Known about the structure:
Number of domains: 1
Largest sheet: 2 strands, antiparallel
Strand order of the largest sheet: 1-2
Helix content: 40-55%
Mean pLDDT: 94
Number of helices: 7
Radius of gyration: 16 Å
Number of strands: 2
Low-confidence stretches: none
Amino acid sequence: xxxxxxxxxxxxxxxxxxxxxxxxxxxxxxxDGWDRPTPCTQWTVAQVLQHAVGDQQGYAATITGEGWPxxxxxxxxxxxxxxxVALVESATRAAADAWSTVPADGPDVTTPLPVGPLAPAVGxxxxxxxxxxxxxxxxxxxxxxxxxxxxxxAALHEAAVQFVEPLRAFAYAPVLPSADGDGPAEAxxxxxxxxxxxxx
Length: 200
């Protein structure tokens, strides 16, 4: 996880990579792909998209105080009234703009997570984790390559161990056993309770 301070704000590389993953995957969903099942039990691809968009809006609004999701991210309807690519672009831009105002060496920051304020690098990684893992959910559901690069997965895993456990009961499934040949992406997915071999 690297970050730089610049005149226009803080640049969070891990968030840029996660947002790129989500935008790329959503843009490649086929027209008949939105109703397909996903690793998120009970949710279709469209519902995972709505959840991911709502979460990015929530992270942004927690920082800026405005732009809250218009529907509950945890009860997505599955009905996409707007262009999916435009939805993702708007939500990721809002999150990126909000996080650019957070200094890398600043005080702990509040997030939508019920774990209390987090160090800026951990908080932004939580936002990035949400985008990247749901990008993976959509990718595997629509027969796309995994968007989790080794570097991105390793950075997210390093941060995840600092906030995932208190959320395990309702946001993440139990940790899955490791397997021979696991790389950073597989290790991250198993830590989050996802099978890298889904849907096998």
